Amino acid sequence: MRSVQPEWVPNISSFDDAHYFEEDEPISDWSESMGSETVEESENRAGLDSEFLHFGFEADVRALVVEFTARPYDSTKLKRFDRDIDDHSELEDEEKEYIKWYARRAGHKERKRPRDKLLRDPWVKDDVLRMRKQTAFLGYSWRCKGTLHRPRVDGVIAAIS
Predict the structure, then answer these.
(1) Is the separation of the CB atoms in 65 and 103 below 8 Å?
(2) Beta bridge partners of 4
């Protein structure tokens, strides 16, 4: 196996050639077949809410947090919320950090829309996905080249070692 030259070797010259995901967003395993909230998450949310109410924040701070966690958020809304919390001069630094932590735990991120215009359309989405799954590998076949056509690389291995 070591003496056979691979059929294809990728040409990677920089980090960007092998960079597939954005660094600031974690990879999501969300799927439409799974529910958006499990029983454990709802129990954790109830515990978080009771702990937040027990902390005893002012009414304006509670209203700000409830308004933020009521709707899904993106990075822009999250930064604006952090700025609003930092602007409250009557809060101590520990309280500000707790509110930011609570908002990230109790709120939920806004799902990104599909980049494909056909997958954005709710009327066509299911048919397009089904058709793409059926025809994904149509016309592709992988056949191994015979060993007669492959050049031997014994000389290359000997030269390296």
Answers:
(1) yes
(2) 152
Task: Provide the residue type at 156 as one letter.
Answer: V
Q: From CA 10, how far away is CA 141, in angstroms rounded?
A: 20
Report if residue 87 sits inside a domain.
yes
- Nearby residues of 101 by Cβ (< 8 Å), 6 or more positions away: none
Tens digit of pLDDT for each residue in 11-49?
878 777 776 656 655 555 555 544 555 545 555 777 777
Provide the domain limits for residue 135.
115-160
Q: Which residues contact 120 (CB under 8 A, 6 or more apart)?
A: 113, 114
What is d(CA 103, CA 80) in angstroms, rounded to the nearest whole number? 12
Q: Domain total for the chain? A: 2
Q: Are residues 60 and 102 in the same domain?
A: yes
Contact 84, 66 (CB under 8 A): no
Distance CA 140, CA 48 (A): 52
